[in-house]
Write a structure and sequence with these properties.
alpha+beta; Jelly Rolls; 2 domains; seven-stranded mixed sheet; two-stranded antiparallel ribbon
Length: 177
Amino acid sequence: MANSAHRLSRRDCIGLIGFAVTGLGAALTARADDQSDQSSVNPQFHRYGIDQTVVAIATATGHHDVLVDVIGDRGTPDSVLKGRHPVQPDEGILYTVSVVRQIALSNAGVPFPTDILFIAQDGRIVEIHPAIMADDSRVLTAMIPVKAALQLLAGTVMRLDIVAGDVVLNKIFGRTV
């Protein structure tokens, strides 16, 4: 009889399941609400006032969406990934400038390898630097004036089969999907 004191009636079980499902639904709704508020999507960057957007990289294998943190007109080649945990395979940092010019970027202090793409004003990828080693102090400068540089987790260029001439689609470049 000691075990029967710990058994729940069928009605109690159904009530608990309903409560759990309701709680899960509320939690998922709250998470969806949090994600729709762009300021809470990536709290690491919120303190810097960084915007997020999705860019589509159009390659021979298709369109690949990448969530990027947009950094405008930086005066230093230092990466904002310095001392930070790795980005996800479908995330990156997009460094933009208001006036097309040569952009410089370094992986110094970044604790993981990255791929760096330089993007022309019309969205064409004009230069690719794959697999830049973690904490590499070299400063990579675009060979021609560009509108942006995209920093991705190393291996993304190979995984998505990105080549020079592929296009990045976003309103920043005047091209959308």
